[in-house]
Amino acid sequence: MKYLQYFPHLNATLNALSGVFLILGFYFIRQKKIAQHRACMLAAVSISGLFLVCYITYHFFHGSTKFTGTGIIRPVYLTILLTHTVLATVIAPFILVTLRRALKGKFEIHKKMARWVFPVWLYVSVTGVVVYLLLYQLYPSK
Fold first, then answer.
1. In this structure, are residues 55 and 67 in contact, taking their beta carbons and an 8 Å threshold?
2. Quick one: the chain helix, strand, coil %, rounded to 5?
3. Structural domains of the chain, with CATH
4. 72-127 pLDDT, tens digit each
């Protein structure tokens, strides 16, 4: 399946876009621009959902990719990958709960949750791009 070769690049792009919308959403809420904040956060959730579908599709058909880096970069990569994977798994349901609370107008509890969900979600988006760069650009498989 030749098209699978594009999925890592697509996934990294989706992660980066999600991160951009998260930062924009944060900026807009700090400016009290609620409609723009809402649009950005809905975009971030939608893009992250599309990422998840693409990620699962790619790994279902392709399997895993071996990291070829050696030396100090190997434990650095594995640490980033481990924290990224664990936090991505843990944060996903909390993102949905935070979104649901906002959509239901429960803004006080939404705000309390978002204060810790946002930085973890942003970390996951950024480290997703870092994993891609290390795995497919800097240390690609032969």
1. no
2. 85, 0, 15
3. 2-138 (1.20.120.80)
4. 999 999 999 999 999 999 999 999 999 999 999 999 999 999 999 999 999 999 99
